[in-house]
## 1
Amino acid sequence: MSSENDYKMSSLNEVAKKAGVSIATVSRVINNSPKVNPETRLKVQQVIKDLKYHPNRVAKRLRNKSASGNLIGVLIPDIQNPFYVEVLRGIEDVAYENKYALIMCNFSQDEKKEQLYLDILQSESVDGLIAAPTNEHDQKVTNLVKSGLPIVCVDRGLADVDVDVILVENQNGAYSAVDHLAKAGYKRIAYISGLRQLPSSQEREAGYSNALKANGIPIDRTLIRYGDSRHESGVKLCEELLNLPSPPDAIFAGNNLITLGALETIHKKGLTIPSQIAIIGFDDMYWSISLNPPLTAVKQPAYEIGRRAAEQLILRINDPARPTMSMVMKTELVVRSSC
Amino acid sequence: MSSENDYKMSSLNEVAKKAGVSIATVSRVINNSPKVNPETRLKVQQVIKDLKYHPNRVAKRLRNKSASGNLIGVLIPDIQNPFYVEVLRGIEDVAYENKYALIMCNFSQDEKKEQLYLDILQSESVDGLIAAPTNEHDQKVTNLVKSGLPIVCVDRGLADVDVDVILVENQNGAYSAVDHLAKAGYKRIAYISGLRQLPSSQEREAGYSNALKANGIPIDRTLIRYGDSRHESGVKLCEELLNLPSPPDAIFAGNNLITLGALETIHKKGLTIPSQIAIIGFDDMYWSISLNPPLTAVKQPAYEIGRRAAEQLILRINDPARPTMSMVMKTELVVRSSC
DNA sequence: TTGAAAGCGCTAACAT
DNA sequence: ATGTTAGCGCTTTCAA
């Protein structure tokens, strides 16, 4: 009796044989069906223990098509972005609490990859999906919603379909950041945006514009740069900005990867923050305090977003007919020393 | 003809019916079996396209038990650690290239969670697993290896069983870091270790000790602190160290979360790096340059480790009998301004 | 209260 | 070259 046997998967059949009952009865015991004799139940449970039986999730999913409580897909645009890592953590904690496993798909902002993963997710018969679509009109995710698969969107919604969504106050958050900059006396405030087609980028830009207007600062479109939400574009666009004949005196960075990239450029140029150039980031990181200088940032409740998304998804899986909801989370301006 | 129909999963059966052939023939077409008439193949392929047919991965796995080329499990101790995020990226890229999906399990250094995930992974009939076990004698992973499931370990091996493993030169890396510190004139060099039972922690400690010896510095055990590889323990242990009657003049941090935690403490105390306290981290981050001050660190090729692990796993899935191998990756000391 | 059997979608052995 | 069929492990009628 080697320990190898401990790990050979035993099936319903083996349990049934050993317990001297039919597989149907074993199945009933496992699923807590009330219609089973207490004695039989005890006997079967004992055998299940002895055999270290674990139900085969694959067979279960094949049989049940869905809603069998075991697999959730997560479609993430960029795992390098600490924001999504936190969201993922939130999702994962809730999933674990509810015995769901996660199938994680990081599509790196590549639409082809997104499509492949969506196909895979579907053909894995996931019970539901948490996704951050590439844009509001993402046909791939939209179709999936239409097909009836339970879906919760995070960070970005879908325009053409009714879907649960967890958002943050992008516009307000951006406003508070830029307003802070303006009130501190900065006049030439630049905005480095993430992917322009993202609703979040647009909303943050709106907040930026409004704050400038409210503070009587004219909008200079050379100070607005659009990137791809990645570290490299933070590096590059910050460089462009700093090389301008009349460079900005402050930068509002559209996400944390961009912030990190911009910081890199600023440091390479040997500029001092905030005396030579101020910077404020959208999205905080727990180690922002250890940056040079400690970063002022708009904090999104990323972990909480993940939790809410997962909770909502489970609710929807259990009741596909429930009305859709959209939840908007607050942001918080964390003032440190970068402006 | 609503777009909803586009997403209803069609089965082999439907394709077969529509194409006027048997499901076996369709299966053959899908799996590129040579034994099929070119004309038939064309006809079937057309129907597959029309119906937007995608094979059901669940049925496939149920049927094949494993080695059907589609699902890899990843068991990660801490997704908050940027090192593992990079490893994950490497794994994911290779998986994607080979059409594997990833089922991600982050057990947050919780052994119960680890066990549950291992059970799930097994009952999902994954083709293989990439894992960073909790310690060398991790029975749970060891048993799984014995059961014959293809497994590759990263960052830490398994003592009681033969298994593929991708390691880094922990001892050399630590040595180079501490040697650098010693040569720079630091005398009281502390080591904040991650979880003591991890082979990597032990190897790094060995490198630390050897470097001290080689430089004629006596080992002071009050300067060695053991934590749990997390940010908080970096914060706390650094505090303890700094509060010592005779505090260290330099800190060697056992991993990047600890480094970040230690930095936080140092900044909170208002100490200047490196004049009042030097610090060097094991494991680099791409934004280390933007830390205060730019961090000197031992760089591990994390992304590469992930890639190699996934490549090796796929090799093993395709040939379970191949001899096991262990690969040791080099580290590199990146000198910036923190010491 | 329990069992027998159909069927989820697929592959592969066997038959034609 | 193609079709028929058994069976992977499970849930769920339907019968007993």
Note: The domain at 170-299 of chain A is CATH 3.40.50.2300 (Rossmann fold).
## 2
Amino acid sequence: MPTLSTVARLANVSVASASRVLNGIRTNPATLARVTEAAEAVGYVPNQAARTLRSRRTGQIAFAMPDVANPVYTTMVGSIQEVARARGWRLMLHSTGAEPEDELAMLRDLKHRYVDGLILASLHLTPEIVAELARAAAPVVVIGGATKDGCTDTVRANSRKGAGDAVRHLCALGRDRIALLNGPTHTTPGVARRLGYLDGLRSCGLERRDSLIEVATDFMIEPGRRAAELLLARERPDAIFCANDLLAIGALSALRDAGLDVPTDVALVGMDNIPLSALTWPSLTTVDLGSAERARIAAELLLERIESPEGETRLVGVEPRLVVRASSGVPA
Amino acid sequence: MPTLSTVARLANVSVASASRVLNGIRTNPATLARVTEAAEAVGYVPNQAARTLRSRRTGQIAFAMPDVANPVYTTMVGSIQEVARARGWRLMLHSTGAEPEDELAMLRDLKHRYVDGLILASLHLTPEIVAELARAAAPVVVIGGATKDGCTDTVRANSRKGAGDAVRHLCALGRDRIALLNGPTHTTPGVARRLGYLDGLRSCGLERRDSLIEVATDFMIEPGRRAAELLLARERPDAIFCANDLLAIGALSALRDAGLDVPTDVALVGMDNIPLSALTWPSLTTVDLGSAERARIAAELLLERIESPEGETRLVGVEPRLVVRASSGVPA
DNA sequence: ACGTTCTCAGCAATCGATTTCAATAGACGC
DNA sequence: GCGTCTATTGAAATCGATTGCTGAGAACGT
């Protein structure tokens, strides 16, 4: 395996010069040509470990997400990869399974310096995680809730407002028994969407009824189906706002099993605008929280922060956008 | 940032001894205790780059897949991560976008030695890729088609047999105008599933009719919907075998738009058994190609190969399994 | 013609571990 | 009591790059 000194010897220069050429540092055109040619000739590839050891830069960033199988996060992966690739960075992906311990482990692992920065998409920032964020060994950008102390760059969606918009949309269509199918309420999105739902009810002058609120065990299809079944067993809502699209797809399945038509009997609104939501039957009205954009911004923030670790931390918000489709009852 | 020599100094031993303790090499219990304690006290974390540089091991493996958004691959990610984590390896994920150039780049990048091995899930092994596989700088296990020269460990599904089974299943239910909704035919799965479909027709004594075959531009939902529309515009099949579940979900949408009932008018069978296939309406009959198991085996093969680079290359096959649900017309 | 500045290349230190090799000390057999 | 063997340990080399410093020579100004 050729090393830098192989190249240097062949080009008849010192390793220092060879290194400079390969790193694009100004050199005499003649040496530049000789080194380039020699490197080409022996098929030189720099050793990443040696380079990292000396320069303290890895050229890699990591993205830690709760669940690879969730389309929201795969969308984010796409955006981040785009930014990273365009700027010559390699991207590492991690699936934490939404386990706080796993997220903690990711943050602690930054000490190993195997990446130069981390984008952490978290459903719930525990106090331990916040503490670890403050002393992280490399820059971190959080996608999700903001930390109180504000000492970490953060990109967040305004899902509270989005949830409110969804409820107001349903109300404007004449629905007045609007249920909430939420995900776990100990999570940031769970809390925000519940508040948004209540905001929405209030601004429409609707009474809040706790039996119209059901909580699924996870933000996924099957839990959504089960929670919807429980809800339907005790109530007869004329609309359901689901805290995300996967839950809504589960609810769709439960409604069908119960012989209820969407949107005639029950209007349905989801949240996230995952690709699949346009292809269900009926197609799903949803609130786009700008996942792709948030991820892109997070990646850009991270790379900037890596370039210049100092400077104000930033909190960027992305505004929600209602995407009206068939499931909420608006004619095609 | 504490280094090994910090620990050694504190424990009053040489760095060599400290290194031994931290690597679990037999040492005097007294030194062991002192070093462990010192490491604990200063919060020592080994520098990955230095370790890799010297020992030529990174403790990382990579998984390159065509598309993170495809549930088949996210399933694989889960299995691989499980195996990797259990054995103390870190996993890197890459989405190649099914671009041969990206897959090539992944293989070439192995020379940087930033991982100790690669699992490559490829839809189509071009001659260039096969050539690069032969001279890869680190062990590679391929999930997908086998290389002719057989000098790379491979795990593959028998989707040809699976496709045949699907067709025979449809035939046994009395269907005799069985269409094929295939993905791109320049891919390994595209070819295999087409052959399996033809096998199936033959073994049922059915005539092959080219107008019953439609090819989508990609193995995804939306292309599936469009291809199904084209098919329905010229033919009236009583069953459609789709080359994967995403295509089948697209087809489901097209059939619904065309006012055709599944399974009464048209029976539908997919392939891959993705989680979503159990939750469509009607639920989707499909052929399980053992994605999770293939990925698990691939991970195990890779780790074994890393331990002992020599030895026969292996070709492992996983057998398909028909999963009968509602869409093929069997009563619930 | 001479001092000053600038460009470029090389020497050598350095990053933080692992690993080889030799030295030491104690255990043991006879 | 002496030679041999074994268990530990430390010194130093090594992995393959990057980078600070130094000096040689060219370019330039006066």
Note: The longest helix of chain A spans residues 188-204.
## 3
Amino acid sequence: MRLSQNITKTLKNVPAEEQAINAKLLIRAGYIHKEMAGAYSYLPLGLRVIENIKTIIREEMNALGSLELLMTSLQSKDTWRPTGRWDDKVVDIWFKSQLKNGADVGFGWSHEEPIMMMARSRITSYRDLPASVYQFQTKFRNELRAKSGVMRGREFIMKDMYTFSRNQDELDEFYNRTKEAYLRVFERVGLGESTYVTFASGGSFTQFSHEFQTVTASGEDTIYVDESKRIAVNEEVYNDEILAQLGLNKSDLKQVKAAEVGNIFNFGAIKGEQMDVYFNDEFGKKQPVYLSSYGIGVSRLMGVIAEHFNDERGLIWHPNIAPASVYLLAIGKEKTISAADELYNILTGNGVAVIYDDRDVRPGEKFADADLMGIPWRVVVSEQFIENGHYEIKARTSDTLKHLNLTALLELVSDTKDKGTSQKKRKD
RNA sequence: CGGGGAUUGGCGCAGUUGGCUAGCGCGCCGCGUUUGGGACGCGGAGGCCGGAGGUUCGAGUCCUCUAUCCCCGACCA
């Protein structure tokens, strides 16, 4: 993209109402716009990050054999009746409204019940199982208090996956594969080292659910991390008995703040029984469908990453999710500008995402914006090096300047992104 | 939902014990000089002071109500 065409401008001042680092940086750099507390729009740059995160998740979910679909945001009251979760006293974060005819509708805060309703008439035989679907959806949750920028919104983007299984073993097998896939997702967005599989409350369904918690000072949860085992325990289930059960020693655990970026649930047969979703097994016997559900907060993930990777100059995106790989600018007049135009076309033609700062402003401003936006590579076309066909290149994370010819430049900026799932790579 | 803080051009802020055409910085527009880390000069535009009601000769400033935002806590399937 040409920066002269971008609708946003970077800001020197942050709106005073934003305290969270993620919101400050994302707003200053032009990634998001606040509509109201807990509701943010994704501007062109922000949307690119969201889409890049989604692409990674999509690849990993597809590799599990799950199929993408898209459910509705409007939900019927009847759908939620069997489990009692339409009741505001049971679920206190509902947004609700009425149709013109007076019928109640809810705005989806989860799609567990709706997916079961959908499955009821479609999954009728053991031959239909196992099956898995996922979606990227806007969820609505009427939080009493929105906070922390995009980390706890009333409207947010979530990837939710639902898997139907014939029995507990089959469910567990998928559950464990998904756990691995989730770890790959967090690895690929750059949070691998600071994200832990965390034992958390399983609600009324199982003893535990598994959360994926990223260590960050702005996190809302307190967890106890065993760094060598790469496992953590949420404080909500932290006690001697459970530590013994998990084989963890109190002395190995470190208490840290963390943000929940993913959560996976094992519902067993309960949802199927509650919602009357049964199938006939090979003996013609009626059996409940086993359900498991898997969530990743996509927009929250962007916030956590922004919180996690930044410095005094601004954001620092991992190459896999950055809105562009290269921030290109020319210093000088006609000659360097036309050389930069040419380089822009070459890079773009080679599939490199480029933010081309073609604005008529001084270099210092462009450097500052390149840093604030957090683009992995900064490429400068200048008179000094144009003669021998060299470009100046600098990584966002380093102060070292390199001078490379076109071939070397292309190689460098294309190499930083991974090319798909590690699963895919193995198959190749 | 309990407690605390805030609301004045697009953004950040100032505005004394109520007083005259509500200021400053950033940003924006025009002209010129500039061009390797957010340049400078000159000239401009832009404000129902969150909203409603009240006190007063006079309200950004005082009173009442209300809305919104932020933070701490509670909540978070």
Note: Chain A has two domains: 7-311, 326-415.
